[in-house]
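Give me the fold.
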Amino acid sequence: MMETTTLRKEEEESSLQEDENGAGFQGLYRSVQNEQVEPIEAKVTGTIPDWVEGSLLRNGPGKFEVGEDEYQHWFDGLAMMLRFNIHKGKVTFQSRFLRSDSYIKAMEQNRIVMSEFGTVAHPDPCQSYLGRFLSVFVPRTFTDNCNISWMQYGDEFYTVTDGTLMRKVDHKTLETMDKVDIADRIVIHSSTSHPHTAPDGTVYSLGSRFSLQCTYNIVKIPPHDPEIQCDPLCNASILCAIPTSGIYPSFYHSFAITENYVIFVEQSAVINLLKVLYAQIFSKSYMMGLEFRKEQPARFHVVRRETGERLLDIYTSDAFLSFHHINAYEEAGHLVIDMCVYEDGTIVSSINLKDLKKGVVPERFGEARRFLFPVDEEQVKHYREGMNSSDFLPHFTGRTVLKNDGTIHCTPAVISDRNAEFPRINYDKYNGKPYRYFYCNGGELNQMIQKVDTKTVTSKGWFEKGCFPSEPMFVSAPDSTDEDDGVVLSSVVSVREDRPSFLLVLDARDFTEIARAEVDAEVAYGLHGLFVRE
């Protein structure tokens, strides 16, 4: 359909290299100039199954220039929200910029007013010299530019970032509502934008507390009770506080849960709080505080979901950086933990907008890896007696052993034949449980979406020249019995003059295109989102 290609592995390199010369990363950093406040009908080609009823909500940086100012990093653009509503095979589209304080002040003053992760705001030209001098000693206001993802608490929806500020949004009109600071409820100074929701509605999140002894705090939010007149965070509590292994806290963006455990990975990328303070005082980028320490192994902290008790065994792996967990589950007294992994921290600095606009491609992309650690006491005992992972799970192609220093160390297995990022699974039925498939972005420029079979370590990819598919979202068919019985949705940004951007619908089983819905409007690439059944 319409020059779509389902790629075989041997076709990938030549196809994507050809497209790189024409498109580069334009689809990722192109600023959206106009909102589409009122829903417009899309042109549907193909057939969307009748059971696909609901809205694909997307969020991400959508505006990278304000007046003569430009944001410096891909993570920094002003948040834009998208909504593709699917009803009886038809699709409507709408979009709005998040009315954050950062956005409102920027529009009022026609310049970047609030600093972001990799961008420093310039001093107010109307401020007196004395005011500018004194402002050096006043802490910056952290941004509420919540441009990473959406979160749902009960029947309420929020846009979020990795800070503690969230913005409540009407998910049907995309109108910005209240600002909520998680730190007003729980003493934390940062929060993950990837929480987990258990089948009973309990939400698990993660936040760091910065002090002389920093901690990672696992947050538990009970199911939303509509009869209680307060926001869903008012009954949140700390399930477990994990002390940092070193002086500075680790960088993280996500974590994993299984039926009985919460897994937090203390990575080799740390946040140097002294450098963050220096950046704050001397108007430098916060990004300078992120350091990758290759000599520092990654540590896997395991906590029992029921009690908050932390397992005392020390689980480690060679140094790495990761943004996204894929899934985790329990098997034969072990934890299986799948993640998208980078061998160093260069990916963060390499996606600055200056280099992307020059067509400079990051040298390394994420690789899907599987880690394995024993958690059953009897199994741990066997490791101490000289056994290793091959004695218990011979199909695991990595290796987990007990080292002389008493740590249990894992050399992970690779579970995908292509690079992988922005992974999604059949979350409702398989999160925290044994699974086989995940869906992700991949290819040389992440211009593909793909279905990965972790059992055979093979993948099927979808690619179209001049198009940038977003994070793929799996939507299961009603009463499905197979893990991959459903569709995959992706918001695709086109940089071609002869083709508008569109919503892509793939059959999740064979990864073939069954429909697309083209929109006569500007579409931001975005980062993450969710599908809301309606």
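Residues 9-23 form the longest helix (15 residues).
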